[in-house]
Amino acid sequence: MKLLTCITLLTCVITWAQEGHFSGKVVNEGSPVSFATIYIESLSKGTTADENGDFMLKNIPAGKHQVKVSSIGYKSLEEQVIIIANGTIEETLELELQSHLNEVIIVDTQTGLTRRTPYNISSIDMQGIVSKGNPSGMMGSLREVPGVYGAEFGQGIVKPFIRGLGFSRIVTIYQGNKLENHQWGADHGLGINDLGVKKVDVIKGPASVLYGSGALGGVLLTHDDEFYKESNKISGDIGTTFNSISNGIRTYGSIGKMLTNGIFFAADLAYENHADYKNGNNRIIGNSRFNTKTLRIHTGIEGEHFQNKLSFSYNDQKLGIILDEEMQESKSLATTRNDREMQLPFQKVEDYLLSYNQNTQHKDLKTSLHLSHHSNIRKEIEQDYDLVDLGLQQNHTFLNARISLNGGKIDHSFGTQGSFVKTRNIKDSQEFLIPDADVFESGLYYLASLELNSWYFQGALRYDFRKVTADAGSTELIEDEFILPGNPDNRKLTRTFNGLTGSIGATKNFDQKNQLKLNFSTGFRAPDLAELFSNGPHPGTSRFEKGNDGFGREQSVQADINYTYRNKWFEGVFSAFGSKVNNYIYFTSTTETIPEENLEVWSYLQTNAFLYGAEFNLKNSWFDSQRLVTKFSGAFVRAEDLKSNRNLSFIPPDNFNLELGYFGLKDKSLYAFTKLRMISDQNRAGLNEETTAGYTLLNLGLSKKFYFENHHLETGITAYNALNENYVDHMSILRAFNVSSPGRNIMLNLKYNF
């Protein structure tokens, strides 16, 4: 026993003798940086500086260690320190003010897009604990970006709008794949959620020159949370969210590890279940319930000059369809408060996405390669649980490749994209809205960049070819008497679209604080299948929908100006744009009805449109500790039908956001905020549209982080629409039927990071 005690004591002495301490001060231009984080990733060990910038890390193994220092508003610093056994190393760590004004920060490796590109780009973090698990999904957070709005069809389906343009005019890039599954109508969602997503970049304005058809209005570019690449230990998180508005529960988790040879493995899993939500009058909105199951798996290699990643995602959704007659008490589908069983009608949507992304870096050469295959199976079930009223399966294979050359003063990028979409009606469907179809699309683009003193110039040119073949020759479509325009004998129609798009712009950095961006660009969108060939009843609605195969492609010309001012305490961003869209396609009801089926005929029409507007985003940090933060943002859009000299319909109202946030406690681990979202009256009604009253929503939130030796726990409580305002949003798909939006929602969050 004495021998064991001696060995133990000797081991402790040796261990202590092989450890040292690291202390110092974090400063910026001689002034202390309060509450900076000092972290040694390899040891999963860190500390927080005090209000004077002083810190101390004790009991660090002797040897070389990479230390990372970070603080809000400053650039992160990585520095190597050598710890001496049984000694203390003291250093002063100098942080630089954070400024993206002149930094080459990669936004998208597939296209070569950077922060210096003269596009209007906004980012939003998807990891904030107070918004994690929002029942409106990613759009619940993205609506806070000036110029971005959401068109709702209940809580589970929210379609993005950017500067007044939405639906299939917005491209979503997820896992590097260009999603095509959300183009089938207003009542179809994005089909993805924020599981495993770190942030979303919003590219405002035409980006067709880099992303092809559909990017006429802008792009949502998702970025995975690759936390596992920063640690050689198994790490991850597990959390749960409760939403009182729908008694909704979401449970999720992520886990991953980086091996010493650069190979990594990771997985994400989530399950979400919601009952019907309540409006501001505490009335249950029947059949607004939904549930989702999501699985994501990743593996790959992270090297100095070579990186690749193979990912698979599966998403299963069941979404209740709110009926037009829901606000009529006798026809409401509302049941008991916590009823989660799916009832008729509802959508069942399954997504399978396999993607491969690869990047290489050499001295003057960079390459990017993306390959993916996405299968989307969508069923609308209305009459009977065993019958499919409307069913479509879409298989999409997508290729994106780019090579970039540093040619001295001018950087050159050459890219190509290819897409093949195969859409088939599910054979046992009761109704057929669109024919079977194959879509082939290919595009080539060239991007050139020139840095000249304080100016940064960039221009791009692209050519695209798209071929659409509609086929109504299947037995089911013949028996349904589905007719293509012109009723061709072979029951097939082929349409082709091709043309050039381009952009040219400049970024001027006057100094480290002032930046101006100017951009002139064109964009295009080829009509989707519904706009060209739809000819049938749409289950879940009271419409008979008709397309027009004679449509030309939409073509826009937009001018954009963006000014940014940034210093240590304040950041202000102002943007203005004007865009003309030729052959703008819109959807409207006609005076025609089909009495025997009790359906109103809706048709797609084309016109020329002009849209213009502005956005601003102001942020200020107060006091030396930067504990108090205020934000004020807003946007407005005006849209005119140039042929009829009237307003376009379905345009977002003017909207403003005011936020006050405070970091409490010595280590800033407590955060409290209040937000006001102010929506103006929409008095500029378009065709067959009524004006809508504005409203104001108050949101409140509180979050707290609890730190342990190597892990931490995040908790949060958020009150959305805290005053329980009852309102109908102008962009609600069900606005014409006065179906009101969600009332007060108390959201509780718990997340453990290990």
Give an overview of the whole structure.
The N terminus is likely disordered. It contains 5 helices and 43 strands. 43% of the residues are buried. The strands form 6 sheets. The protein has a 22-stranded antiparallel barrel. The chain has a 5-stranded mixed beta sheet with strand order 11-17-18-15-16, with no helix packed on it. Strands 1, 2, 5 and 8 form a 4-stranded mixed beta sheet that branches. It is globular. It has 754 residues and is mainly beta.
Count of extended strands: 43
Helical fraction: under 10%
Helix tally equals 5
**Any low-confidence stretches, pLDDT <50, length ≥5?**
1-17
Give average pLDDT, whole number: 88
Gyration radius (Cα, Å) is: 27 Å
Q: In terms of structural class, how would the helical and strand content be classed?
A: mainly beta
Membrane topology: Multi-pass membrane protein
Domain TonB-dependent receptor-like beta-barrel: 258-721
Family: Belongs to the TonB-dependent receptor family.
InterPro entries: Beta-barrel_TonB (IPR000531), Beta-barrel_TonB_sf (IPR036942), CarboxyPept-like_regulatory (IPR008969), Plug_dom (IPR012910), Plug_dom_sf (IPR037066), TonB-dep_rcpt-like (IPR039426)
